[in-house]
Amino acid sequence: MPREGTGPDFIEALARGLDVITAFRPGRPVMSLAEVAAAADLARPTARRILLTLAELGYVRAEERGFTLTPRVLDLGVAYVRSTGLWEVARPHLERLVERTNESCSIARLDGSDIVYVARVSVPKIVSLAVQIGTRFPALQTSLGKVQLAALPPDELERVLAEPTRSGLVPRWQPDRAERDAVLREVRARGWALTDEQLAPGIRSVAAPLRDGSGRVIAGVNVNCHAAETSVEYLREHHLPLLLHTAGEISADFARLETVPHVTVPGSSRPA
């Protein structure tokens, strides 16, 4: 089925190429031409040309059983993370938070009705869901998502949550609108969010918003733990104060970064 864009400047070939890259999902690291074509909803000749182009560019590798992505695909996500400046600002703060809590800590940003992880410092613990940079989950059932959804105006909130999730995960908690709105009002009032096994069994976390210099919520930062090891009370009493302090430090540093002028001087490649 041909891709339909929103205007005359829409590049269908680029959209199809991105569809091919995102066709590779967990559990399907190697896919045949037929599988890629079916997953991306493309004709086999079209899928073949795109795969061969991606292979020439270094993003795909042909194997005996089909095609697989190469690590170069990570460059696409890393470019986004680096462009925001969040990782450079947040890294030392996240590392200190992990040292003080002995739990994994992450930053995620809202993307439609999902969150996408953009920074993470982890500890080696067994959890029911694997998380890495680029992992996406339904936002409403995560603490990272709640603190960002709670900051949205009502109309935008409805529009965002109307978008279908692209995470592939069916969360445990399925609230009606009244329950959802009550939870987000509470998050908005207290300035932080807690999730207790609403996404999946064993997953418990607390999150705080990250803000830019204007006070706008731009991401969320959390402390994640296993429900069998850490009680809700300990999460609130011990981890939450540390998290709120860290969120304030990251937000302040990010606001300071935004005030630094970035000037490119033409022809200044020679050392001064």
Question: What does the model show?
Answer:
This protein is of the alpha+beta class. The chain has nine helices and nine strands. It folds into two domains: 12-69, Arc Repressor Mutant, subunit A (Orthogonal Bundle); 76-259, 2-Layer Sandwich (Beta-Lactamase). The chain has a six-stranded antiparallel sheet. A three-stranded antiparallel sheet has the order 1-3-2. Helix 1 (12-22) crosses helix 2 (33-40) and helix 2 (33-40) crosses helix 3 (44-57). The longest helix is centred in the last third of the chain and has 28 residues, at 232-259. The model is unreliable at 268-272 (pLDDT under 50).
The succession of helices and strands, N to C, reads: HEHHEEHHEEEHHHEEEH
The top-level CATH class of the largest domain is Alpha Beta
**Which stretches are low in confidence, meaning pLDDT under 50 for 5 or more residues running?**
268-272
The percent of residues in helical segments reads 40-55%
Strand arrangement across the biggest beta sheet: 6-5-4-9-8-7
- Number of discrete domains: 2
Radius of gyration based on Cα positions:
21 Å
What is the CATH topology descriptor of the largest domain? Beta-Lactamase
Q: Structural class of the secondary structure composition?
A: alpha+beta
- Largest sheet, described in full? 6 strands, antiparallel
N-end to C-end Cα span:
56 Å
Tally the helices: what do you get?
Answer: 9
Shape, principal axes of CA atoms: globular
Count of β-strands = 9
CATH architecture of the largest domain: 2-Layer Sandwich
**Average of pLDDT:** 87
- CATH homologous superfamily label of the largest domain: GAF domain
